[in-house]
Amino acid sequence: MKAKLKSFSFPFLTPVLIASVLLLFGFLLIPIVFGPNFAMNYKYIFRLALRISTLLSTLGFIYSAIGYHFKILRGDELKLRIHFEALNISFTTSIVSLFIIIFIGINFWPKMLNWTLIFLAVIAIITYVISVEFIKDKYR
Amino acid sequence: MKNKLKVLRAQRNLSQEDLAKILSVSRQTINAIERKKYDPSLPLALRIAIVFEKKVEDIFILDQE
After folding, report:
1. Upper half-sphere CA count for residue A133 (Cβ side, 13 Å)
2. Residue A43 is part of which domain span?
3. Which of chain B's residues have a Cβ under 8 Å away from the Cβ of A79?
4. DSSP letter at B25?
5. Does residue A5 sit in the same domain as residue A36?
6. Are residues A13 and A49 in the same domain?
7. A8 and A67, same structural domain?
8. What share of residues in chain A are helix, strand, coil (percent, to 5)?
9. A65 and A29 in one domain?
10. Which of A19, A73, A99, A131 is deepest in the core (most CB within 10 A)?
11. For residue A42, what pLDDT is reported?
């Protein structure tokens, strides 16, 4: 299985990623495409369309994540090094943020704990993107 | 780690882009190695040695030596 994944070329990675981001916001796109009253008039179809769009979006994100991972592994070794160093920084920042979120949540703002995973995902993605730029500078 | 990559490349009239293509890496990797910002992996060091028909230790030298 791993050997098959390694040799698979993962075509259309960027279009799939863009489509996944768009499909994630189906609740915004559907009223634009079908009109503002669509959600009220066709509740069942609206909910079904939302489920399908978020499912496709999830599949797209999984495909993109695995695809980019193997693409980086197969590619240039300096880029792989930059990727690993950025992941390291991103992971450390996420762990530190998790402890801070738990501390604040338990002591001052318990409702915020419901959003922990979303906070962590956003923090991890932002730190990864920023640290890639800093690490690129280091090797320039 | 010091290296003689830039000198060897110049002796053979190869650009960073040419060498990168031969070694199947990016030009940025060659540039980072030449500027001593990045030490290549052992397989890449061996491939560089094969391209320049030299031993690895003739191209890459530890600073303490």
Report:
1. 5
2. 1-74
3. 26
4. S
5. yes
6. yes
7. yes
8. 90, 0, 10
9. yes
10. A131
11. 83
